[in-house]
Amino acid sequence: MTTTRPGEWVDTAMGLADFTFTEYPMRITTDRYTSPEFAARERAAIWMRTWQVAGRSDDVAAVGDWMEYRIYDQSYVVVRGTDGVLRGFVNACRHRGNQLCAGGKGNAPRLVCPYHLWAFNLDGTLRSVSRPDLVGPIDKAELGLHTVPVDEFAGFVWINPDPDAAPLAEYLGPAMEMLAPYRLEEMTTVMNVREAVDCNWKVVIDAFTEGYHIEGIHPELLKVIVIDPTQNRFQSFGDHAVAVAPFEVAGVDGFGPEQQLDGIRALPDTFPGVAEVLPTFETMVDAHRDADGVLHLPDGVTPRTILQEATREVYTAKGLDVSGLTDSQMSDNQGWLLFPNFFMTVRAGEGHVILAVPHPDGDPNRCIWHVISYFWLPGELREPFRAELVEVDPPGSHQYFLALEQDYVQMPRQQAGLRNTRLDHIHLAREEIGIARFQSVVDRYVASVD
Ligand code: FES
Ligand SMILES: [Fe+2]
Which residue's CA is the closest to the ligand 1 atom numbered 1? Predict the structure, then answer.
């Protein structure tokens, strides 16, 4: 990749209108959402073999910081070593298997098993055993913690339960270069909520992979997004994909510049980071009004290009280097799906991540969704705005921002329909090519196990 703004790769991706729709099945089975047998195959083929986000690097920034990552009944601990390197271990003592670290995160100079006090160094090697006279001769070099691959990218900690996994960089491929200019590693967690939801984990991913439900579920977004097959772009690579729908309602009856401006003013309901940019945006808009307040936009200037200019100006003034981002990345949200369960909408200065994992009880009709928002904030605002994890209890008691609340309410309703045994297939719309692609990757993984 030789461009200095790698996001151009997405700007020039295929439009929906250019696809032939022969590559992926548009008619898919429903047992994938409800069957315990299918879920068991996914567990072996997907969850025990793929890279997953365990948390943020700044949660394990200091030597001795650790965090637990659980998937189903499997538990891993990620630890920052004295050499600054992050390592992952199976969270089980090599003596008699007791769990070393329980729940959440912490800091310790070494990992000491509370049962019989065997102590492990932060690099996983066995440091000492208590009462060696009762233990007898052992080969310490043989009794280090079992390791799992761990890596860091974009401020996220990634883990793969498969000890033989290919490196993260190889797995993510071009996503690393594409996402780097957003500087996600500089962003602060400003919302962090986890909750059990009554739907399969793929119902969550599906819901964020298509824009076809905007009219039904998010009608207020119609002011800024029109699903136009010639403008919506979709690009798949490896097991992953990226899609983008521009924030611009053009060519729609009755939708002139003033209506487009109103749509942008309402954006913070869905993308809160836009609020920061609106005062500058309004000033730039007013510069195009005559003495009577009538708007005269020169050729090539639209509410969307003004939003782009305002966004670049505001973030640059605050200290975020946006020089590696394209103009469309100033206004439009790219939607990245990094298989299996990392979905992120991202634009300059803000990212919103949805992680969905199967419920630990194994019921395919349930999952845990974890929604996290990141803002780029100047240094002095980072600590005051940093959000700690909220585990919602009782379920349903948390109020999400508007668009997320709308999706949260919708998803269990789809699962309830999918549970009907007579419904053995569903039919995807062409706009839902992202779902077709995602489910074809699921099928490929699941077919790899007996
Ligand atoms: S099980 Fe850990 S020290 Fe015995
Ligand atoms: Fe939605």
Answer: 96
Model confidence at 395: pLDDT above 80: yes
Closest ligand, as measured to the CA of 210: 2
Q: CA of 414: how far to CAs of 53, 309, 339, 411, 421, in Å? A: 26, 40, 22, 5, 14
How far apart, in whole angstroms, are the C-alpha atoms of residue 100 and residue 96?
11
Residue 450 reports pLDDT greater than 80: no
Nearest to 367 by CA among 428, 415, 417, 439: 415
Report the nearest atom of ligand 1 relative to the CA of 96: 1
Two tokens at 185?
């590693």
Task: Supply the pLDDT for residue 1.
Answer: 45
> Distance (Å, rounded) from C-alpha 408 to C-alpha 227?
22
Task: Pick the residue whose CA is nearest to atom 4 on ligand 1.
Answer: 116
**Nearest ligand, CA of residue 113?**
1
Amino acid found at 18: D
| Alpha-carbon torsion, ordered 40, 44, 46, 48, to 10 deg | 130
Q: Is the CB of 410 under 6 A from ligand 1?
A: no
- Ligand number, closest to the Cα atom of 405: 2
What's the CA gap between 193 and 189, in Å, rounded?
11
pTM: 0.95
Look at residue 429 in the predicted model and tell me its pLDDT: 95
CA–centroid distance, 415 to ligand 1, in Å, is 43
Give the Å distance between the CA of 316 and the centre of ligand 2: 30
Tell me whether strands 188-197 and 342-347 are parallel, antiparallel or unpaired: unpaired
User: DSSP character for 89?
Assistant: E
In the chain, the domains with their CATH numbers are 1-49+174-450 (3.90.380.10), 52-164 (2.102.10.10)
116 lines ligand 1 (CB under 6 A): yes
Strands of 366-424 (E only): list them.
367-375, 390-391
Residue 385 Cβ inside 6 Å of ligand 1? The answer reads no
Point out the ligand 1 atom lying closest to the alpha carbon of residue 117: 3
Could you tell me whether strands 390-391 and 188-197 are parallel, antiparallel, or unpaired per DSSP bridges?
Answer: parallel
pLDDT reported for residue 2: 45
Contact 204, 354 (CB under 8 A): yes
For the stretch 191-245, pLDDT in tens is 999 999 999 999 999 999 999 999 999 998 888 887 888 888 999 999 999 999 8
Give the tokens for residue 440.
Answer: 């074809």
Write the pLDDT tens digit of every residue in 61-74.
Answer: 999 999 999 999 99
Q: Could you tell me if the CB of 100 is within 6 A of ligand 1?
A: no
The mean of the pLDDT values for the chain is 94
pLDDT digits (tens, 9 = 90+) for 136-190: 999 999 999 999 999 999 999 999 999 999 999 999 999 999 999 999 999 999 9
